[in-house]
Amino acid sequence: MTDPRLGVDGVVVAFGGLRAVDEVSFAVQPGETFGIIGPNGAGKTTLLNSVSGLVPLRTGSISLDSTAMHGLRPHQRAALGVGRTFQAAEVFNDFRVRDYMLLGRLFAQQTSVIGAALRLPGVRRAEKSERVAVENLLDRHGLADVAGVVLKELPYGLRKLVDILRALAGRPRVLLLDEPTSGTATSDRLALRDVLLEAGRDGMTTVVVDHDVQFVSELCGRVLVVNFGQQIGTGTPAEVLQRPDVRAAFMGAD
Amino acid sequence: MTGEMTMPPSQVQTAPARTRPSPRTLPGGAAGGAVFVLVVVVTALAGGQYAVYTGTLIGIYALVTVSQEWIIGRAGLVSLGSAAIMAVGAYVTARLSTTSWSVFPIPLVVAMIFGAVVGLLIGVPGLRFRGLYLMLTTLALQFIVAFAGQKYQGVENQSGFVVNPPHWGSLDLGSPRALFIITCVVLGLVLLALRGIYGGAAGRIWNAMRQDEAAASVLGVNLVRWKLTAFIGSSALTALGGSLYAYQAGLVSYGTFSLDLSLTLLVMVFIGGLGTLVGPILGAAVIVLLPNGIERLSGAFAGIPQVADWLSLHEATVANGIYGLLLLLVLLFERDGIYGLVRRLGSAAAGQWHRRVRRGAVQ
């Protein structure tokens, strides 16, 4: 058995006395689309935050392709290949679509401040080729005409799509999607699903956290169900959703 | 000093008129640069004594406000230490101006290096603190520099260190006109450099940091590196402004670089408008020109001696009152500052124009 792309092992995240994530373990194989579902407040986003490095682990370990990550800071994990979208699309309100996309390609970019200040030809060339790449990417997804629009002026569903494309543009080794469908209409969900299915076909490894069970079921081969911070089951969507304890957890929640 | 004030309208014409312009875009650089060069050349060749003097002062303050905007407007951090950092640049320049290191531009470069070091020193607490606490640590710098400056000057230099004029071997660069040209060339180069920085990956990184630090770090932004870079770069340029200030004033004393000056500079940044390079320059121009405007106002009231006398007697107080009022108005109604207002008016006018043209086409 090879090492999983993303290994989460016995992770506990606690805020004071509250164990928001309690002994959760799962492994995502390369190219797999893995879902995490659970009622509101189950600890799904906290689990993603622990992978991103935004919250410290009390115990447990997290690895990317067998490299232990849990001691690293968020930007170091990002550099290793942990990509991420945000539950609230309004986190980065002030960017134009094209600048936000460029930010997704941070690792491909020249960030020498001195070089930029001196307007060295190498830096300018690199910036130009990055811009061309982003325009092409936007064009491919039919977003060329909103490239210059500020994110807060875009419809919410489109912002969620732009956020996912931004994350994909960085070619992460694992992509974490935090509630991609929250606040979106059905038509938006279809567009999001198509983009994610295409990414999956291209071999992207993805972890989807969402409260829309149907959306997750359509995308993911395996899902993990969490409730009150604890995992109550892993399996194919069909298997998991038939279990009485899983059904009980979702009663009244969705 | 009408020359400097001709800058904003031509910038407006280059701004896209179709939608409401966002404040966080770079204005048309070529047109802005051309206007800048034109204003500088005309003032240098044809400007009177007063125009050259005021132009130099505006240039120096513009350099400092643009540098401070780097921290406040780009990285989203607060700093109250601008005058203290200017003082460091000014002291370095004054001391070097009497040595064999006085050849231009060595004192300017050394001042920048010292400024960078101070930037690193205030940047380190900046890594831990945000908002109010960071403001307090930069405020502490202000008091430290005032104290150290006083001790450094001692009794024999109580009124300050004399600054010998800049020179290039036997060529004296100390005339007001030469200082004006030096100031404008330095400011122009700094603006070009900042345009290069803000237009690329670094500009996007600070923009992301300003909007949400944690989210930016998840995107791969090394917060430590980029906060320190902003503090170091901004402080180096602020010290450069202090260096030019020393040459202009001819005397450097700690009393000049008070908290008052820091606050005035901060007001300049906010009044001018964050997120652009033109905004802080406008803010600096307004603040430098305001006392003169009040003087003229008191001249206009010559018929009513009581008013005229009161105005000229309380010029500084009235100016401070107007700064405060402007700041309040900006914070309440026009967050993008004067430049934002100018752009909005400009795009509204352009919109009117387009509508009229379209109506003409239909008929």
Give a verbal description of the structure.
The complex is a heterodimer of chains A (254) and B (363). Chain A is an alpha/beta fold and 254 residues long. Chain A folds into 2 domains: 164 residues, P-loop containing nucleotide triphosphate hydrolases (Rossmann fold, 3-Layer(aba) Sandwich), CATH 3.40.50; 74 residues, no CATH class. In chain A, 39% of the residues lie in helices and 23% in strands. Chain A contains 10 helices and 10 strands. A 6-stranded mixed sheet of chain A has the order 6-7-8-3-9-10, sandwiched between helices. The radius of gyration of chain A is 19 Å and the shape is globular. In chain A, 44% of the residues are buried. By secondary structure, chain B is mostly helical. Chain B has a domain of 247 residues. Chain B contains 15 helices and 4 strands. The interface between A and B is medium-sized, with 34 and 29 residues.
Pair of chains with the largest interface and how many residues each contributes: A-B, 34 and 29 residues
Radius of gyration of chain A: 19 Å
Spans of at least 5 consecutive residues with low confidence of chain B: 1-27
> How would you classify the helix and strand content of chain B by structural class?
mainly alpha
Structural class designation of chain A: alpha/beta
**Main β-sheet of chain A, in a few words?**
6 strands, mixed
What are the secondary-structure elements of chain A, in order, as H or E? EEEHEEHEHHHHEHEHEEHH
